[in-house]
Amino acid sequence: MNLEHINALKKLLSAPKKIAVIPHKNPDGDAIGSTLALWHYLKSKGHETVVVAPNDFPKFLKWMPGAESVLNFEKENTQAKNILHNAEIIFTLDFNHLGRVGQMTEYLEKAAAAFVMVDHHQEPSDYAEIMYSDVHMSSTCEMVYHLLDYLDATDDITSEMANCIYTGIMTDTGSFKFKATTSTTHRIIADLIDKGADNTAIHSRIYDTNSPSRLHLLGCALKNMVILEAYNTTYITLSQKELDQYKFTKGDTEGFVNYGLTLDNIRFAVIFIENKEEGILKISFRSAGDFDVNNFARQFFNGGGHTNAAGGKSDFSIAETISYFESLLPQFKKALTK
């Protein structure tokens, strides 16, 4: 974050304001962790602050301090619209394009507030007056820690904030195994533990609260796995019928795509999940090494993200989408097998 934007943000926050803090649609641990951590801080400084999420978030994140205060745009529509309309500042966290908030997009586009972006994804759009964008960061939660440092506020980090920030860093780094995890990341984690983050309890609340139906769904997903040895690639499919059979709830497929990368020699892992309600296939891409799934998702599946983790979508059936996906692989064979 450059000095000009740091000073502009300090000036913007110098007096109490009405502030909305926004995560992306289908928020994950990093989105909820970063927005709640910032919400705690802004409230402590006297700002009238509300987290407005585009839709609901997974049950395994609802233990987080302040989670009960998050406004769900889908369910609390009138109240949420009023918050956005009256906001003087809108923070957008863990996304860099207003299209990532679903039905909220038009209301953010019409908002008169000053926008502040905090995000680590590639190719940010330019809607924000104050932008903190860094694709090398492990997570938006790590960026929130640095943001507080820029505001001379790391001493203000409470145990509640520490638990939120720790959660986002842990989940977005795959429990600290992804390449973006640096020595600085670990120093921040150490400081968060010193400030009250309960690392053992956080891990248990995120990873050890499975329902039997979720594990059965995982079994179904792994049974559906296809391995394309010629391209060091694997993919999983889950139909709406299978999701319904195993009583799918939001967040149940989180992390399924990563199982593909645990296979020896696999460099590219994908999961295709049917969503009849939205009329699309949701796609997650993961890669090992330098195969760029961000560019792959942007070029072919109307998506994007990071070099090794991205998302996309398809408007076609599972069979049609798989056929198209497989037809693309020959042009990437050298990159996937070198």
Strand count, sense and barrel status of the largest sheet are: 6 strands, parallel
Low-confidence stretches: none
Strand content: 15-25%
Shape from CA axes? globular
Assign a percent range to the helix content: 25-40%
- The average pLDDT score comes to 96
If strands are numbered along the chain, what order do they take across the biggest sheet?
3-2-1-4-5-6
Q: Work out the radius of gyration.
A: 20 Å
Number of strands: 12
Determine the N-to-C terminus distance. Answer: 37 Å
Order of helices and strands: HEHEEHEHEEHHHHHEEHEEHEEHH
Number of helices: 13
Architecture overview:
The protein is an alpha/beta fold and 338 residues long. 38% of the residues lie in helices and 18% in strands. The protein has 13 helices and twelve strands. A six-stranded parallel β-sheet has the order 3-2-1-4-5-6, with helices on both faces. Strand 7 and strand 8 form a beta hairpin. Helix 2 runs antiparallel to helix 6 and helix 6 crosses helix 8. The longest helix has 16 residues. It starts with a helix and ends with a helix. The mean pLDDT is 96.
Task: Spell out the key features of this protein.
338 residues; alpha/beta; six-stranded parallel beta sheet; 13 helices
